[in-house]
TrEMBL record, chain B:
Species this chain originates from: Kitasatospora griseola (Streptomyces griseolosporeus)
Record has Mitochondrion as a keyword: no
Record-annotated membrane-spanning stretches: 246-265
UniProt lineage: Bacteria, Bacillati, Actinomycetota, Actinomycetes, Kitasatosporales
PROSITE patterns the UniProt entry points to: CYTC, TAT
The protein's name: Cytochrome bc1 complex cytochrome c subunit
Length: 355, 273
């Protein structure tokens, strides 16, 4: 193919544009631009015609696709589902609109690329680099204008204007600094305590099942089960429910007492029932991916893993503290109650935290 | 005979011998292995327990012990109840194919009457959760009540189940190769039994903390989610915009790069260099 074409090349074509290749002693001599090579469409009128037809065909296809877009918008029912091979069941309307619009846009682009590659001029044009600096004449002129301006405004002579201008410019950024106050105020004691804080030995707070909204007895929590609880008195209809449950949320598990490795954790529970905060100590995601055989709780956000049988010790991931545990016992009616707040602040660490 | 022995040094001789040996072993196993026989119908509970004990001795005792007391390879089955057996064997998880992080769901090996016999035997070892009957796990047929159950079930699902099984029930990863399986195409009865018994590493949700009608509501929600049409096509694990974005970046932009390289690599010059 290329042999056939080279016979059609005009003799002088390459030589007229290309610079002579220098083969002197200098090994770093500028070899100049390579000779311009014509394209098939430059020298073969039939090839040019064919390229023209191909480009127009792309544009016509694009037109048809746009018509198809409008037609499918009008004709296809929005609820219709069709089976399309790798995608499965999809909305017929969405699929038709996406395909036709995609074809319409793609054909315009493909036609334009083909047009530029085959028919538009492809002569290489070198563009030399120039120094960025302006000419001395221009520079002198600008400096002259600046000096005249400075003299005419009296900036150097009228000191009061100059000083007050500098003062006002210096003060303006302060408005932005003052707005940074909205990053605060500091949380103060709010993060140290939760809703369980109001519980005391004399006035304990009942644990309420999130599913049934009822207090629970120890025998309700069987080994291997997972239950979520909130403090008595916190209702989903409360205006601040979301703010409060974000700190108060509890997960209750029951582990055979002999399997609990941490003695302190075992004492804070009741007959193997342990109440841990549901809020991850890394960045505060709700964490309840509990595996009942390994007693691991996994945080879905960053894969921090806590061993609930060992005082919720962190065994993997970025969390810095064990999950806080709530000390529980039973009241005189036999319901599970808390007699105080968590042993540590819940949720992620913050700078006022003492430990 | 002479011809055959002359070929014993052929490079493929070892492969042929190996294939023959494998075929012989497989054929012998097929011929002598205990075939699962159809079980005679029996209304008597003790008969079912007897039959179940026989099935148990053949299919389960190697790991769970001859009396279901458990061994180093399998847990004790005393007190797991018939619901656990119906779930584990009914979903094909048991008998387990191989040890590993988690026993996967597969085609059930036993038929339902055999499963019932096994369940009767294991239930006789100690009291435990009982296989539920349809009015315990079947959501309401009534359209309005069903819609109520779906709404309530969605709420309960997001509180109790979605953390592991994904909000659309597509499942998700846990630690050390364990995973929460997808709930697509799982029998209502098996979902109920799973909540009741807590199979493998799934925690259980007993009636004391999640009453029966709440379990039914969750099943109604799962059924509704499975049946809901998906106009978008490829769900990509129903994980939301993250996977969708990743997919478009890799495949969309990847395709564009390939096209750009193809365009640049094909010169239009008449003289190919």
């Amino acid at each position: 193919m290329s042999h056939d074409m080279s016979e059609n090349l005009p003799e002088a074509h390459g030589a007229s544009h290309g610079a002579e290749v220098v083969t002197h002693d200098d090994p770093f001599a500028d070899p100049g631009l390579p000779a311009h090579e014509p394209r098939r469409t430059d020298i073969d009128e039939r090839a040019a015609k064919r390229a023209e037809r191909q480009v127009s065909l792309m544009f016509v296809l694009s037109m048809l696709a746009t018509v198809g877009f409008i037609a499918s918008y009008a004709a296809i029912d929005a609820d219709k589902l069709v089976y399309i091979f790798p995608l499965g069941k999809v909305s017929a309307l969405n699929f038709a609109l996406g395909m036709t619009l995609g074809v319409a846009l793609f054909c315009i682009g493909a036609g334009a690329v083909h047009w530029a590659r085959t028919l538009m001029s492809d002569h290489e044009l070198p563009a030399d680099r120039h120094p960025i600096e302006a000419s001395d004449e221009v520079r002198n002129d600008v400096i002259e204008q600046f000096k005249t301006g400075a003299a005419e405004s009296g900036f150097g002579r009228r000191k009061m204007i100059r000083n007050t201008l500098i003062g006002s410019m210096a003060l303006v950024p302060l408005s932005g600094v003052v707005l940074l106050r909205d990053l605060g105020p500091l949380p103060e004691k709010k993060l140290l305590h939760t809703g369980w804080d109001e519980a005391t030995q004399a006035k304990p707070i009942q644990l309420v099942n999130m599913n049934t909204d009822q207090p629970m007895k120890p025998e309700d929590i069987i080994q291997g089960s997972l239950t979520f609880a909130k403090p008595h008195g916190l209702e989903e209809s409360d205006e601040d429910f979301q703010q409060r449950i974000a700190k108060d949320a509890l997960m209750l598990v029951r582990i055979a007492p002999e399997d609990i490795k941490d003695a302190q954790s075992r004492d804070m529970g009741f007959e193997g029932i342990l109440a841990y905060s549901k809020i991850c100590t890394h960045v505060g995601c709700p964490i309840s991916l509990y595996e009942q055989q390994t007693h691991h709780a996994l945080c879905p956000c960053h894969q921090s893993t806590f061993d609930l049988a060992d005082g919720a010790r962190v065994i993997f991931g970025p969390a810095g503290h064990p999950l806080p545990q709530l000390k529980i016992t039973t009241d005189e009616q036999g319901f599970l109650v808390a007699t105080g707040d968590f042993d540590e602040p819940v949720g992620p660490s913050y700078w006022e935290r003492k430990r | 005979m002479k011809k055959l022995s002359a070929r014993r040094r052929h490079p493929l001789a070892a492969v042929v011998v190996l294939l023959l040996a494998l075929a012989a072993t497989g054929g012998l196993y097929a011929a002598f292995a205990p075939a699962s026989k159809a079980q005679a119908d029996s209304s008597s509970q003790s008969l079912a327990i007897d039959e179940g004990k026989k099935l148990f001795a053949v299919g389960c005792s190697s790991c769970h012990g001859l009396n279901g007391q458990g061994t180093s390879d399998g847990p004790s089955l005393v007190g797991v109840g018939s619901a656990a057996v119906d779930f584990q064997v009914g979903t094909g998880r048991m008998p387990a194919q191989q040890p590993g992080a988690q026993v996967p769901r597969k085609k059930a090996v036993y038929n339902q009457s055999e499963i019932d016999q096994l369940a009767a035997y294991v239930a006789s070892l100690g009291p435990g959760p009982v296989t539920p009957n349809p009015d315990q796990y079947q959501p309401s047929e009534d359209k309005v009540t069903n819609a109520e159950q779906v709404a309530k079930g969605g709420e309960l699902f997001r509180t109790n189940c979605a953390q592991c099984h994904n909000f659309a029930g597509k499942g998700g990863a846990l630690t050390d190769g364990k995973y929460a399986p997808s709930l697509e195409g799982v029998d209502s009865k098996h979902i109920y039994e799973a909540m009741q018994t807590g199979p493998q590493n799934m925690p259980s949700f007993p009636d004391t903390t999640m009453p029966e009608e709440q379990k039914r509501a969750i099943i109604a929600y799962v059924q509704n989610t499975n049946d809901a049409p998906n106009p978008g096509g490829l769900a990509l694990g129903s994980l939301g915009p993250f996977t969708e974005g990743l997919f478009s970046w890799i495949f969309g932009i990847g395709t564009l790069i390939v096209i750009a390289i193809w365009v640049a690599a094909h010169t239009t010059k008449a003289k190919k260099s």
